[in-house]
Amino acid sequence: MTTTSYKNVTKQITSNLAPLRASVPQVMKSFTEMGKAAIADGALDAKTKELIALAIGVATRCDGCIGFHAKALARLGATKAEVHETLGVAVYMGGGPSAMYAANAVAAFDEFMAETPSNSLPVER
Q1: Are 85 and 63 in contact (CB under 8 A)?
Q2: Are 115 and 74 contacting, i.e. CB atoms less than 8 angstroms apart?
Q3: pLDDT-based confidence at 119, cuts 50/70/90?
Q4: In the predicted model, is pLDDT for residue 34 greater than 80?
Q5: pLDDT tens for residues 64-81?
Q6: Mean pLDDT value across the chain
Q7: I want to staple 112 with a disulfide (CB 3.0 to 4.6 A). Which of 2, 10, 74, 86 is the partner?
Q8: Rg of the chain over CA atoms, in angstroms?
Q9: HEC readout, 39-101
Q10: How far apart are the first and last CA of the chain?
């Protein structure tokens, strides 16, 4: 069981980014806009794109990425089955180290799902 609170990880990173937003506002604004454009519905919906981003976060061993994308997936109504299958692909592509971070991603998703109102959760099939 991980002792990392991904809620705290995302809050801390958000706080730590404040000086960059102040000193290089155009860079940070552009990064934010690029993220919005990349995740926007198109041939793939936003949830599918967030699942891909979570898998990449696992493969690159980025705790912040895992936190932010797990949070987005909880908000977008991803099911545990969808997240777990995505993590299975990440483990397949990244081996043992990805398996360790996939376990962390499960914990992050569960942490953010616990904050999601139960009346908006989709039914798992």
Answers
A1: no
A2: yes
A3: very low
A4: yes
A5: 999 999 999 999 999 999
A6: 92
A7: 74
A8: 15
A9: HCCCCCCHHHHHHHHHHHHHHCCCHHHHHHHHHHHHHCCCCHHHHHHHHHHHHHHHHHHHHHH
A10: 26
Question: CA-to-CA distance for 69 and 117, rounded, in angstroms?
Answer: 18
Distance CA 43, CA 49 (A): 10
What type of residue is 78?
A: A
Domains of the chain: 6-117 (1.20.1290.10)
Contact 48, 20 (CB under 8 A): no
Q: Which amino acid is at 119?
A: N
Total count of residues recorded for the chain: 125
